[in-house]
Write a structure and sequence with these properties.
elongated, mainly alpha, about 150 residues
Length: about 150
């Protein structure tokens, strides 16, 4: 009688463990998908910001270049064309960020760093562990309770 009972309990425990593992896997997949969607949204916002900034900077660059060219011609001072060069570099950078291959080149460089220079990505003191987080939490609670007294 006890053998049959323990056998059914073992089978029930096995099913429960499989169910828990399945749920943990689903939760992790959902978390990964959520984090990826958040990353995609942040990247989209960053690209949208670059495009919006480019509109304003492009207008400024055009007006400033036109004004500097007219001023250089009227006053016969070619030195007035000097600011167009650095402004042109900034404009080209913003244009590349907004519509060019900047993001693709950046991703390729990041992949290269991750594959060949992974040691540069290590966190100081390593990856946080449960114990290190718990120790910091306890220290903060102790300090907070001490300060409240």
């Amino acid at each position: 009688m006890g053998f049959l009972l323990s056998k059914s309990m073992d089978a029930s425990l096995q099913k429960q463990q499989e169910f828990m593992l399945h749920n943990a896997r689903l939760q992790m997949e959902r978390q990964i998908m959520m984090q990826n969607q958040m990353r995609e949204r942040q990247m989209a916002m960053q690209i949208a910001w670059s495009r919006e900034f480019l509109k304003y900077f492009g207008t400024f660059f055009s007006v400033a270049s036109l004004g500097l060219c007219v001023g250089a011609i009227k006053r016969r001072k070619p030195g007035l064309l000097g600011p167009i060069v650095p402004l042109g570099f900034i404009f080209a950078y913003q244009l590349d960020m907004a519509y060019g291959t900047f993001v693709h080149r950046m991703r390729e460089e990041a992949e290269s760093i991750m594959s060949s220079e992974g040691d540069r990505l290590d966190l100081p003191l390593g990856i946080p562990t449960f114990d290190s987080i718990e120790k910091a939490r306890r220290a903060k609670n102790t300090l907070t309770s001490f300060l409240e007294k």
